[in-house]
Amino acid sequence: MPIKLLILVCVLGGFITRSALANLRVVTTTEDLASITKAIGGEFISVSSIAKGTQDPHYVEAKPSFLVLVSRADLVISIGLELESGWLPLLLRGARQPKLLPGEPGCLSVSEAIIPIEIRPQVDRSDGDIHPLGNPHFMADPQRVILVAELISKRLSELDPTQAKNFKQNLEGFKLKLLNKIAAWKQKMAPFKGIKVIGYHMTFNYLFKFFDFDVVGFLEPKPGISPTAQHILKLIETAKIKNVKIIVIENFFDPKPGVTLVEKTKAKLVIIPAYVGGDDSSQNYFDWMDTVVNNLEMNLR
Asked: Of 40, 71, 107, 134, which has the fewest Cβ atoms less than 10 A away?
């Protein structure tokens, strides 16, 4: 190989290596977190999500491919509040990277940024799949997401101080857009304040609270327990008495119990993606919230 060409290859190779090393490798447990992290990190990080938006993140399989992904990460970002307790600890321990263990800089639980609802310190198995530390589905509350974004930006800046200015700038842009969207979403839902709702799981409780909806029941008799015929009969009576307007079901659950309910009441069935990436129209946080809000508004008119 000619000397000049060899030098050029070495220079370019070194540049590529340094460039690759400069980018923080981030692994998130959900696509919600991936979307927000990408918005803040921009071109200075690479982001991969373990759970897909079409999955229930309670029940992700700790695959060997995920173990490889985590072992190569500089930062693992999780929801916390035991949402991923069935599989994430296995991946963190199996990665054999001390920097990724809880309490270390490479491990971030964004629940640290928020005050959760539905804290229940005294629970047992008879209560169903309860999260004693609080409801982990807070990403459906855009106001709490602002706090999450700030925490992510802070951790990225700690791990890569050279890009702290860029992370901060991206954070401010994200927050400004989100605040404008919050105002628009609130305005669209304002006419429906106080409406009666039945959910499937507790996935959208933060969202219902955000829009001042009144949740009167769930298709699950207890969290994580599949609907029963007896429980559906009770919900039919509840829906009639309380004039329930909508039955909201996450799109990865079986809609049949909801169909039975709407056939016996005046309520409408609303099937929506539970997370970013849950359908083709929900590929980032803003699009996902738009999809959710538009579906709710369309069925509440």
From this structure: 71
Q: What are the pLDDT digits (tens) for 215-239?
A: 999 999 999 899 999 999 999 999 9
Same domain, residue pair 128 and 13: yes
CA angle 22, 28, 33 (to 5 degrees): 105
- Residue 218: strand pairing partners: 199
Q: Cα–Cα–Cα angle for 221, 275, 150, nearest 5°? A: 115
What is the reported pTM? 0.90
Place of tokens 């628009």: 184
Burial class (CB in 10 A: 0-12, 13-18, 19+), 25: middle
Task: Look at the block and give the residue holding tokens 């016996």.
Answer: 264
Query: Looking at the DSSP assignment, which residues form a beta bridge with residue 249?
Result: 271
CB 175 within 8 A of CB 108: no
What is the amino acid identity at position 268? K
* 18 and 80 co-located in one domain: yes
* Residue 8: predicted pLDDT: 39
In a shared domain, residues 172 and 215: no
Rounded Cα–Cα distance for residues 220 and 132 (Å):
18
Residue 151 shares a structural domain with residue 243? no
What is the spatial distance between Cα 134 and Cα 79, in angstroms, rounded to a whole number? Answer: 12
Residue showing tokens 């969202």: 207
Write the CB contacts of 11 (distance below 8 Å, at least 6 apart in sequence).
none
What's the distance, CA 195 to chain centroid?
25
Structural domain that includes position 33: 3-183
Residue that is last in its domain, among 141, 165, 183? 183
- Tokens matching residue 116: 């959760």
CB atoms within 10 A of CB 49: 23
**Mean pLDDT (the chain, rounded):** 92
Whether residue 55 is found in the same domain as residue 170: yes
